């Protein structure tokens, strides 16, 4: 535990951790169970195309979410693209800019214009009042993002969508295992999309899923993720290849068996961070809604904007690879930056929040001791960032993560 500036690695001290501590270290689950499933898959020689593990995985996820249909996918981005296509979105679709770039790209990839909407700075989620302002005659839908696993204001967004005859869906990539008013995320809008990427607390190596209670939509999505094939020689829609592999489903089935443990571990980490950071001047930890189910996978804090990159630099020097998710906002990345050079004028809260957020490591790779060490560095960094900046002005700033993530 470092308590003095002179001990900081950025000033020449030894780093707090010998090996890098990551934000998104994957959870593996029970290795023996996973290897047994992989052997079973190899013996069966059924590796893809709606195999038995994928079917079992879909049934188990649907039961867990209490939703009629779960369609497993090769990743969250393709799942978003297919959900967007299957629900007939076109023209303009309202999305937050403060999200991972895939939310916007899934629209633009299909030549649908993402219209970036501002967020509520307290929650980092779409602000329904701003959503209303962004609606034009070309608007066909809204994609809310349950950022950090916190549910959007689903009721307000549902009302807007109903009143204005818009399709509402959610990018629920961060919200597997979370609930809204006691109902699992996966049940809202016309469809909700999950990511099971390696860096998510629950992963299938790469993977994703669409959850929906609409039977017709589910049937269409199933065709679309398999080139549009209905039977051996009959294609009914334009489709793509969005299929989940048996290997991914084996990982998913194994992870599902440890889901409670993963969440419990995240919850413990969240509580330790909260204990260590509550009351630290210049630090605000994003609260998770009490009384709801939550996966606690992202530990997002806000620090003073002028201090943020300095703090990231200090953390990285200690081998703590904190991230600036989702800086600088989609509207400041290409192609959107060129398409809408003045979008920032309508996104003041997004711009402010994107300048302040630091996402800290969590997951089963770390525990109380590491978190106490990380928070000690944050306390030093936030208390002394001006002095540190002056001491470091002659040194290049090498440790900040590349922009865009
Ligand atoms: N919508 C939202 C709101 C999303 O957040 C995402 C994905 C999507 C849609 C799209 O879903 P997918 O198509 O990805 O299923 C990562 C992930 O690649 C991405 O899945 C995720 N969001 C995003 C928030 O984070 P990067 O570029 O930050 O990943 P990377 O490679 O820097 O990894 C993060 C940390 O995890 C690193 O510190 C290293 C560590 N790591 C990573 C991998 C892959 C490991 O320790 N082991 C690993 O296997 O984007």
Give the helix/strand layout.
Layout: E1 21-22, H1 31-44, H2 52-65, E2 69-73, H3 76-86, E3 92-96, H4 101-108, E4 113-117, E5 119-120, E6 125-126, H5 128-134, E7 139-145, H6 154-164, E8 167-171, E9 179-180, E10 183-184, E11 192-195, E12 208-212, H7 215-224, H8 246-257, H9 259-277, E13 283-285, E14 299-303, H10 305-317, E15 320-321, H11 336-339, H12 348-354, E16 357-360, H13 368-392
Parallel strand pairs: 1-15, 3-4, 3-7, 7-8, 8-11
Antiparallel strand pairs: 2-12, 5-6, 9-10, 11-12, 13-14, 14-16
This protein binds ligand T4K.
Ligand T4K is lined by residues 22-26, 75-77, 99-100, 102-103, 145, 171, 173-174, 195, 197-199, 208, 321, 325, 405.
